Amino acid sequence: MRVLTHCLSFGKPRSLIGLWLGLTGLLAAIALSSLLYGAGDIGPARAWQALQHMGTASGGEARFVLTELRMPRLWIGLVVGAALGIAGALLQAVTRNPLAEPGLLGVSAGAAFAVTLAILWGADTATLRVSVAQLGALGGCLCVLAAARLQGIGDDPIRLILAGAILSGLLHSLSSLILLYDQYTADEIRFWVVGSLAGRQLDDLVPLFPSLGIAALLIVMLARPLAALALGEHVAIGLGHHPRLVRLLVIVVVALLVGGATAAAGPIAFVGLVVPFAARALAGPDIRRTLWLCLPLGPIVVVSADIVSRLVVPPSELPLGVLTALIGAPVLIGVVRGRRLPTL
Known about the structure:
By secondary structure, the chain is mostly helical.
C-alpha cells in the first residue's frame, strides 16, 4: 500500500478524493440505470422487482434479462471504459499530444485488423483473440511512436492525427477486403467491428484479467516517471528516470489495454479522447491525477452511451461506437478549433 501511495501520490488530496468519490457515486447511479433500462419489453419497474429478488428463484423473464443480458454488458462496459480512458491518457502523455487517441492514431484499427485476420484463419477462442488484438494494438502503437519521432510530424498535433488517420484508413480498408472475401468472417464480426456491448458474456472478460493485471502493475510503476517526463527529458533523466524505457513500457501498457478492450467490445472510438480531456479539465495536467479520474470517467462515458444506444431506436439498438463518435467528434472539433492546443 505504501508503494501504491508513493507512486500515485498527488497534490491537494482532499479535493481530488472528493471529486473521485463524487464520480464514483455518479457511476453507481449510471450502473443501476444500465440494469433497469433496455430496448426490450422489460421496463424499469419489472427490472427493479427482479433486482430486489435476485437471490430467489422468482423473476422469470425479467431475472433472465438482468443476469444474462444486461449485467454482463454492464461489467464489460465498466472494464472497457476504464481501459480506453486510461490508455488515452497514457498515449497523450507519451506523445505530448492532446489529440492522441487510440481510435484516431490507428491503435484500435490495428487491434481490429488483427482480430479480423485471426477469425479468418479460424481462431474461435476468446483468449487467442485477446492476444492477437493486443499484438495488433502493439503494432499500431509502434507506428504512432515512429510517426511521433519524425521531424515535422511529431511536433505538429494535427499532422500526427493525419498520419494516424491514414494508418487507420488503410487498416480499415484491408479489413473490409477480408470481409468481402470471406462471408463467414463477415457474419462473425459485422456488428462487432463498429463497437458494441450487445451479446457479450462475462466469459469474454476472463481472458482479459492477466493482461489487465500486468497493465495495472506497470501503470503504478510508470506514474511518477511520466509526471517527471512531462517536465522534459533532461529533468526526467536528472531525477533518475530513463525516458526511452518509460515510453516503451507505456506503449506496452496501451497495447494491453486497447487490445483487450477491442477484443471484448470492438473498436470504440473517441473514448480515449473525451475521458482524458474531461479528467484534465477537472484535475489539471498532472498525469497521476488524470489517471485517477479516468478510472471512473471512462466507465461513465461508455455505460452512459450504451444506455442511450438501447433507448433511441427501440426495439432495436444502435452500435455503441456510433454513440461514442457522436460524443467525441464535437470534442475533437472543439480542441482543434481552439486558439492553441494545450500543452501536456
